[in-house]
Amino acid sequence: MSTGATIEWLEPRSPPNASPPSSRKKIPKSSSFPSNMSANQDCFASGMLEVYDINHDNEVMDDLDQDEADLGTVEEHKSIILHLLSQLKLGMDLTRVVLPTFILEKRSLLEMYADFMAHPDLFLCIPEAESPEDRMMAMVEYYLTAFHVGRKGSLAKKPYNPIIGEVFHCSWDIPITQPCNSQSETATSSNSQSETSSSPNNQSEDKAGYHRVVFTAEQVSHHPPVSAFYAECKEKNVCMNAHIWTKSKFMGMSIGVVNVGEGVVYDVTHGEEYSFTLPSAYARSILTVPWVELGGKINITCAKTGWQAGITFHTKPFYGGKLHHISGEVKHQPTNRVICKIQGEWNGSIEFTYCNGYRGNDTKVIDTAKLSKIRKKVRPINMQGDFESRKLWQNVTAALKSNDIERATEHKRFLEERQRTEERQREEHRIAWRTKLFRRKGEGWVNNNLLEASQ
User: Are 159 and 109 in contact (CB under 8 A)?
Assistant: First the structure.
C-alpha cells in the first residue's frame, strides 16, 4: 500500500478496453498535421486537436438529473478517508493529491461554472438600468443570486478536475417580454423554487421572441489549474469574462478552496466594466456529513463611474453565529456616499436596505430559494467534440450513476494519466500548450471573441 501523498492505491489501472497512456512513448511523425505545425508535433499536445464552430441552435434543454445520489454514506468510506487524512498535513496543498472517486459530483468543474448564469435574466438587466448606480445595483443582485444554485444532494461533493484543453458550451434563451426585476420583486410571493425552460426544444420554432445568452469555458492551464469562462448576449451588448485558479488546502476537519482570479462584466452600451472577485469555499465536517460554506470579502468595482460594492461572506464561528451570512454595502467611492446596506444569507433571503435618499430609502428582499431557475441548453453528447466536458467524462459519469466506483475510478485514472503523459511529451519536445478559445492578457485570460473588443 502506498503511503505517498497521491494515495495511488485509490486509483486502479486503466480501463481494460482502452489503450494505456504509457503505450504512447513517442509522438508519431505524420504528414497529416496542419501546415503550420512541424511533423513531430502532436495536435492534442499543442491544444489544436479540435477546431470547430459551435451551433447553439443544435442545443436542447438539459435533461440530466440534477439530483446527486449519494454513493454510500461517509461512514461506509470512513476507513479510506482516515487513511487519506493520515497522510496530509495542516495547510498542505491538495492540488496534486488524488482524492477518492466516491466524493465526486457527476460533472466537470467547467460545467459547474455555468451555474454562475443560473439567472441569466438578471444578468441581462445590468445594461437595461438607467443610471450608473442602478446598473451597479443590478450587477450586485445578479452576483449575489448566483451562488445558491448547485447540486441538490445532501452531501457536499467536488466536481471533476478538468483536463487541460477541455471545453464546455451551453446557452439560455430568455423571453424578450420578461421585464427586469420581475423575479426579484415577486420572489417572496412564490411558494417554492421552480425551473423554467428557456425556449421550446423544437428547433423549427421561431426564436425571434428570445434573447440568447451563450456560455463557454476552457481549462487553459494544468499547473496551476486555471479555468476560463465567458458568457455573452449580443442583443443586449453585455458579456462576462472570468478566470479562476483553484488553490485547495487541508485544514484538519475541513478543506478550503481559494478562488484566485477575477471576472469582469462588460456593459458595452455604456462603456462600463464591472470587475469582481470570488469568495473562498470550505468543505466542512468531512468525516461526518460534509457541507459547504463560503467565506471572505469580495469587491465589485466600476472604475468609470466610481461605484463599488464590498460584500463579506461570513464563515460560522465555532460557537453561535449564523450559517451562510453575508453583509455589505454599495457606495460611490469618490464621494463616499452609501446608497445600500446588504445583509442576509447567500442561499436564502437577501435584504437590500436603501439609504441616503436612494429609491426612497425603501427595502427590497430577494429570496433566492424562490427564484425561478432557467435551465440551460446543451448539445447532445453525440454532437459534441471529444474534449467537451460531458463527452470526455461520460464513462466516469455512467459508472457513478450505476454506483460502480471501481469502474469510475479506472476511467478517471485513464484520463488523468493520459494528461500526464502528454504533458511529459510536450516538455520533451519543447512544445508550448496553445489554448483554443482564450488568450493570455497580463495575469489573466480573455476570450478570443470578447464582445467588447468587437464593437
Answer: yes
How does pLDDT run across 5-34, given as a tens digit for each residue?
333 323 333 333 443 333 333 333 333 323
Predicted structure pTM score: 0.81
At 377, the amino acid letter reads: K
Residue corresponding to grid cell 430559494: 369
Q: Is 199 left (phi over 0), alpha (psi -120 to 50) or beta?
A: beta
Q: What would the pLDDT profile of 194-212 be if each residue is shown by its tens digit?
A: 566 555 554 434 467 899 9
The C-alpha atoms of residue 245 and residue 232 are separated, in whole angstroms, by 22
Q: How far is CA 420 from CA 24, 164, 165, 219, 282, in A?
A: 11, 10, 13, 15, 28
What angle do the packed helices 394-401 and 405-429 form, to 10 degrees? 160
Q: Which three cell numbers stand for residue 247?
A: 488553490
CA angle 215, 300, 150 (to 5 degrees): 45
CA distance 62 to 377: 5
Q: Do the Cβ atoms of 153 and 68 come closer than 8 Å?
A: yes
Half-sphere exposure of 401 (CA within 13 A, CB side): 12
